[in-house]
Amino acid sequence: MSPNANWGQTDMGLGGQAGRIFETAFQHCQDGMVLATYGGVVLAANPAMVGLVPTWPHDPVGRTYAALVPHSPKLAPGRWRQDMLDGRVVEVEAVAGGADGLMLIHRDVTVLCHLGARLSDAEGELEQTLGLASIGGWRLDQRTLVLHLSRAHGRMLLGVPEAMALPMQEYVERFVHPDDWMLLAQKIAHVTEAGWPEGFTDHFEYRVRHPDGRVQHMAVTSAIHNGRVVGVTQDITERKRMVENLEANERRLRTIIETTPLPLVITNANAAKVMYANSSFRALFDIPDDFDGDINSRSFYQEPEDRDRLIEALRRDGVVRNFEALGRSWSGRNFWASVTAAVLELDGEPSLFVAVNDITALKKHEAELHAAKDAAEAAVRTKSEFLAMMSHEIRTPMNGIIVMARLLLDTDLTPEQREWLEIVTSSGDTLMTVLNDILDFSKLESGKLDIETVPFDLSALVGGVVELMRARAEEKGLAISVHYGMGIPSFVASDPTRLRQVLLNLVGNAIKFTEVGGIHLDLTVEHQAGDDMVLRFAVRDTGIGIPADALTRLFAAFSQVDSSINRRFGGTGLGLVICQRLVLLMGGLIDVDSVEGKGSTFSFTLPVQVESAVGMASRSALPPLPPLTILLAEDNPVNQKVARAVLERHGHQVDVAEDGEQVVSMVADAPAGTWDVVLMDMQMPGRDGLEATRHIRDLRGPKGQVPIVAMTANAMKEDRARCLAAGMDGYVAKPIDTQPLFLELARVLGIGHDGQTPLPRPEPGDAVLDRASLEILAAAVGRGELDEVLVSGLAHFSDIRVTWAVAFGRSDGEAMAYVAHDIKSIAASLGLQRLAAAAKVVEGLARAGDLDQAMAVGARLDDHLDEAIAALAEFRVTLC
């Protein structure tokens, strides 16, 4: 509808062509345009209104504006925004058109409103974020020098979010710390003099002082834009406090590290460059105080590879403690250092934090302690060896005294003479007990007493002890009994010799200290797991008992309950000490339960292995060897006879070589395979067994591969190692024992023997003549053959006395060692234990170059030969 139709041209002041132009603009304007009366009746509207107002019709003339635009205000000149039903926002501007009515111009501002809302939200979020970070915005007008502060800035100053605008002078006087007024004045003067240059930026800090005296630290970042200074201020009070605390802690830590007496250093792990060293470290390594150049930490090590070992340990474990190395100071001084180190990250690179202790004095002290310990142990060994030698030397004449006294007791004597001789024999027996105790104690002290594991008949051993002690008990009118608990096995494996010694000592003590009542031996099973068993032996008596305060020193060496005990009962005070140490060596424990005046119970545990009767029988059986041809290399004629008799009795053929040269030539000259095995004595004149073996092994072809088994009286581990190193295949100890010899032959020759192992050899005794050994030898070779061996031995002893006298008279150590070895070998084969032991001592001392001691011990060798010859002659009578 044309606006001119209802709006007179005279009223608009338009006419003609101007009216047409107005009408064209009215119809094509993109803004919605409406002509309406002051009462709201629509006079005209352009087409744009249909697209702007959802409820606007195509023909609105004559209708009221309020009906067509819901919720519109009363029409009057002015401007407002109208929310449309479809969500759009239309801005309406009403312009008075004179007395006839109003021109209503409608514009779609939906996008502008949305952008404004988003901008407002963004400004709110930004201010909130800055507020959370204690950051406030501000701007300073160049012309008026009025400072406008954001709400967040107001919160920092006043504690409440409040925007402020105030002259810069007032802000400084109200809030800025007086000491910083000059700083802000200089900042403003500077930008003023520079003409407020566009883009100029600045960063600085100042302090705010509150009425309550509290001080805030502020950090400012500003820039000049369009003639105004804009910026942000951040409250850095807490950060300042943290930095100050950190700096204070760092100063304290640096002071501690610098003044600590512990040398500390930090080095680069890869380049080994020293990054920091405290004063103690510099002093330890003699680094000059005025030196500030680069130092490579490798120079601190006497051996540079020690640092590589330290680095490797750190890579593996992360931390290394007490790493010992030789250090080297700046001046070249060497010392022992103990290093503790850890890996840390500094400036993104691995570094080492190292603490160093100078342990030179400690190392010196350790060396002194080791030397003192070695000296003490050597003194103990010397003492024990002296005690053993002295007890051995005293034992020989004492045996003669006791034997002669007992022989005299078998003659016609007056009562007075018999009483005197009985005192002699009793005193001799007591002294022999003392000597035996001292000898055993010295062996225990020097660590020379070994424990063996041998299968044996337990009931027979215990019964033998009881029967042996029964006569002594009955002499005092005491009963003696034994009880076996449930499950006690007949056969076990342990050390029968030491078990018998402990039981004899405990039962003997019980008899000694009991006057009325009796002695009871009780055996029980303490624990069992398969064939492993722990037995408990308890010896109970009704004797004098032991005071409670004396129990703690009961197992102390050379100690008795009180001196009256020694005067009344005698003894060395070593018996229980020996028992305790033997039980400990066998893997058990010993204890005592006693009531003074009522009696005592000594009990001990003993780990054993249960043996079956079948196993015991199989262990004693000889392996089924086929007839063998054996070459025996032995220089001693008596030993030749013994070995030959044993071997030939079991069906083997024996050829003899009398020295090392002969055995080598015999093997070299005979066809290969002539002998199945060579039995090689270790010590022969000229070429010994080791050298002879090496020459045989050098022979080409099968001859050099003949099996060789060593025979030696030196049954030590190192001797076995020497034999095997020389090329020998096996090793047996002398004197010859049939079962171990045949088992070793079976092993070396690869002949099956059902896994049998030889019984361990008993420890050499100290008897003049071991009749049991000769009885075994008689069973092996026959009594007639044994008699021939004894005759040969007696003849050899007669001859060798002359040789010994010459060597001894000339103090010829080498000759003494050779003759003593010969005597030892023959004596051991014939069971002459005491003579063999004395000859072994002489041989060892002479070979060690201790001629004085060898002469001292050797001075009694003639006496030992006399008693040995007498004992052999006496034994021959029993063979007839």
Would you kindly provide a brief summary of this structure?
By secondary structure, the chain is α+β, with helices and mostly antiparallel strands. Helix content is 47%, strand content 22%. α20 (660-669) runs parallel beside α21 and α26 (813-829) packs antiparallel against α27 (833-847).
Structure explained in plain terms:
With 880 residues, the protein is an alpha+beta fold. Helices cover 47% and strands 22% of the residues. It is built from 29 helices and 28 strands. The strands form five sheets. Strands 17, 18, 19, 20, 21, 22 and 23 form a seven-stranded mixed β-sheet that branches. Strands 8-7-6-11-10-9 form a six-stranded antiparallel β-sheet, sandwiched between helices. Strands 2-1-5-4-3 form a five-stranded antiparallel β-sheet. β22 and β23 form a beta hairpin. The longest helix has 50 residues, at 360-409. Mean pLDDT is 80; it is low at 4-14, 563-572 and 754-764.
Strand content: 15-25%
Structural class: alpha+beta
Number of helices: 29
Q: State the end-to-end distance.
A: 171 Å
- Radius of gyration from the CA trace? 59 Å
- Determine the mean pLDDT: 80
Report helical residue fraction. 40-55%
What overall geometry do the principal axes of the alpha carbons give?
A: elongated
Question: Largest sheet, described in full?
Answer: 7 strands, mixed
Low-confidence stretches: 4-14, 563-572, 754-764
The tally of strands reads 28
